[in-house]
Input
Amino acid sequence: MAKTAKKIGSSAERLLKVTEALCAEHGLESVSMRDIAKAAGVSPSVIYHHYESRIDLLMAVFRQRFGMLLALRAPLVAELEAQAVPDVDKFLYSIMAPIAFMRSKGEDGAMASRFIARALMSSLPEIKAEVDAGIRGMRETVDIAQRAFPHLSREEICWRLHFTFGVEHMTHWDNERLEIMSDGLCNARSVEESITRAVAFAKAAFLAP
Output
């Protein structure tokens, strides 16, 4: 019985990985159950044995990877919440670093970060609703920023956070264009340098009048 359960779990996990890889390359909207079945080398009936629908499978991948991202961010946020006045550099680091950490974890991490990038831009209603729910959970980030920058209104903090997340996205999901633009002068693939420069840029923006 245990052997059967292990086999089923392994099969389901393989489907998650195949789905993630296809979606990371082509986008969530473009990948069909037929595509997944072909890439996984199984019949569609095998997929339906584990997942009720295509959306169910996509949601499983998203929740797994978003959970991974939140786990990387959790200890950074916990440290900030324990501080009476959150350290500005550490606050911005908690925004910039998690995706970079994920991206640096070999091919698996790189694939996960590309999938999340695709998911955040997805037009599928179910995925969009899940992303929006995750964004609502970022209100704790606004609360921390309010304590770190008490001179700014909540409205102003939300605007600046919005642009800061844009810096995060461009830093980690559009780094190849930076290398093209700079003719290779900028080493956008260096996790440490990317985080350091992104934090410095965001800090200057937050401290601006």
